[in-house]
């Protein structure tokens, strides 16, 4: 398959090897560790496969415990914690080469009526059609796309467009607030299964969230002075959505201290409806030597 969206759907299609036990592929990439969004998305698929399918996911809470190795399969062991009248709870442990690398607890809720309110979006932003893709912005700035980034762009399952464009130079981040926003959508259709869309968006939610932590300290493009890794990740799903339609990922970092940065994200549809809330804490450690990165989200934030 050459379509990145099809590859993502295939990546999320786990093999069931026993009751409550699933195996997921981990593509052989040039990354140092498995992308954290991949592990979270696959774990959520495993959890969902053990339910009746009539209750959408309403929340997940996860911890990244060890870095995963690219190219090595990951086994997902599901514990059926609770099957209640309205809620279903699952706990998932991801194991690679005999070691636990990731834990996830997911809760599923039978839809029911209730009152509604929502804070408005923080600001008005340009439409995604008015913004360049990351690859186009790099081509505009550099006069072309580096070969390594060209390969990454062809494999990228999501179209990502930065509302405030990429920061390229230190002077561009002087006085910058720890905020970032991107439009995103899968680069192709993802089918009609709501669980696939939820897991695909879970995959995407780990791609740019720690940008908000980085923005006050270094440009999003160029040599990276810090190594980043996701420590934990939580999501609350408020309304139905499709991950192959445009959604706005509005991100902010209320604090960074002690080598850790906290980031919060709100995901909206084009009409301004709040679809998903996300919170993540990441580890940021200065590199002992210069480490060049040719794409702001190339490593993901990783497990």
From TrEMBL:
Q: Which residues form the Acyl-CoA thioesterase 2 C-terminal domain?
A: 157-283
Record-level Gene Ontology MF annotations: fatty acyl-CoA hydrolase activity
Q: Which residues form the Acyl-CoA thioesterase-like N-terminal HotDog domain?
A: 32-109
Q: Which protein, by its recorded name, is this? A: Acyl-CoA thioesterase 2
- Keyword entries, A-Z: Hydrolase, Lipid metabolism
Which residue windows are transmembrane per the record? none
Biological processes per GO annotation: acyl-CoA metabolic process; fatty acid catabolic process
Q: Which organism is it from?
A: Streptomyces paromomycinus (Streptomyces rimosus subsp. paromomycinus)
């Amino acid at each position: 398959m050459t379509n990145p969206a099809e590859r993502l759907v295939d990546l999320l299609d786990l093999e069931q090897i026993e009751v409550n036990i699933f195996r997921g592929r981990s593509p052989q990439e040039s990354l140092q560790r498995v992308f954290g969004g991949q592990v979270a998305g696959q774990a959520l698929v495993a959890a969902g496969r053990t339910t009746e399918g009539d209750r959408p996911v309403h929340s997940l809470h996860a911890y990244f415990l060890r870095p995963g190795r690219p190219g090595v399969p990951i086994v997902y062991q599901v514990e059926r914690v609770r099957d209640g009248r309205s809620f279903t709870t699952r706990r998932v442990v991801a194991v690679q080469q005999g070691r636990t690398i990731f834990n996830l607890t997911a809760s599923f809720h039978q839809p029911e009526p209730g009152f509604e309110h929502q804070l408005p979006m923080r600001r008005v932003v340009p439409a995604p059609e008015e913004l360049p893709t990351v690859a186009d912005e790099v081509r505009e700035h550099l006069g072309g796309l580096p070969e390594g980034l060209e390969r990454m762009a062809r494999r990228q399952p999501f179209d990502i467009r930065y509302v405030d464009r990429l920061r390229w130079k230190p002077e561009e981040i002087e006085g910058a607030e720890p905020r970032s926003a991107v439009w995103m959508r899968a680069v192709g259709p993802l089918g009609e299964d709501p669980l696939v869309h939820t897991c695909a968006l879970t995959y995407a939610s780990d791609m740019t969230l720690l940008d908000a932590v980085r923005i006050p300290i270094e440009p999003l493009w160029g040599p990276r002075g810090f190594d980043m890794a996701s420590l934990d990740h939580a999501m609350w799903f408020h309304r139905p959505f499709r991950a192959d339609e445009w959604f706005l990922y509005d991100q902010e970092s209320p604090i960074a201290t002690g080598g850790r940065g906290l980031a919060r994200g709100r995901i909206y549809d084009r009409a301004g409806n709040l679809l998903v809330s996300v919170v993540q804490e990441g580890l940021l450690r200065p590199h002992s030597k210069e480490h060049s990165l040719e794409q702001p989200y190339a490593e993901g934030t990783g497990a």
